[in-house]
Specification:
Rossmann fold, binds S-adenosylmethionine, eight-stranded mixed β-sheet, alpha/beta, globular
């Protein structure tokens, strides 16, 4: 994702009411508190990791007002664009976190999230970078901690290699595949699908979208240093 660096983006994000920016001092302050920032505290909490420019969240928060939505993004320029899109919707069920997924367990409490979305995560095709993929087992360990017992995770990608790698990692850690398609847009799951920026780009080139919904193992994970 190439974007011109805007030095003011950082300041705007730090001051924005829809954005939480964890620092060394405040990083744990939202753990277990997320529901209380939304008007409807009982609604499920869905979190998109690697939100990018935020098309999915702006659409999803409009189409599904019965869900509280949070986007996590580590790069300030796309995040600022996402926040602007979200702001324009005037939806009250939408927030953003400026952070690296690495720090997920500082930001969310055990079992706080009902669904995680990984949309077109960077595929890191080189084998030596496998540990950076957001479905590498160390990340799955983090998701196991923050997902609710009945929670799940949805992965969409154009990358066959990331998809195959992810299925292996899910299996290795005892995650269960509930729904799967190697051509989402021509599958029964297409009817309720909300597209992302990258998804529109790849599918307009005729590339099939790979989709899987998985649930974590019943036994809750403990922090894993690997
Ligand atoms: C290829 S883009 C996809 C954006 C969007 N999800 C979509 O489908 O259009 C991947 C995004 O994930 C973000 N990202 C990658 N690794 C991340 C991490 N460890 N923590 C937070 N964001 C991350 C990148 O900065 C980038 O904006």
């Amino acid at each position: 994702m190439r974007l011109r660096r805007k030095p003011e983006a950082k300041q705007k994000l730090m001051e924005h009411p829809l954005v939480f920016t964890p620092t060394e001092d405040n990083k744990g302050q939202m753990q277990g508190q997320w529901r209380s920032v939304f008007p409807h505290e009982t609604h499920p909490l869905h979190v998109e990791l690697g939100t990018g420019k935020g098309q999915f969240l702006a659409k999803a928060s409009t189409l599904r007002p019965d869900i509280n939505w949070i986007g996590v993004e580590r790069i300030e320029e796309p995040l600022l664009q996402a926040v602007r899109k979200g702001e324009a919707t005037e939806n009250t069920n939408l927030r953003y976190v400026w952070a690296d997924v690495e720090n997920l367990t500082d930001i969310f409490a055990t079992g706080e999230i009902d669904r995680i979305y990984l949309h077109f995560s960077d595929p890191w095709p080189k084998k030596r970078h496998a540990k950076r993929r957001l479905t590498y087992r160390r990340f799955l360990n983090l998701y196991e901690q923050v997902l609710a017992p009945a929670g799940d995770l949805i992965l969409k990608t154009d990358s066959v290699s990331l998809f195959d790698f992810s299925l292996e990692e899910f299996q290795e850690r005892g995650w269960e595949v509930i729904e799967i398609s190697r051509d989402l847009h021509h599958s029964p799951y297409a009817a309720i699908n909300i597209t992302t920026e990258y998804e529109d780009k790849f599918s307009s080139r005729g590339m099939p979208i790979h989709y899987v919904r998985v649930t974590p193992p019943k036994e809750r994970a403990v922090a894993d240093e690997n």
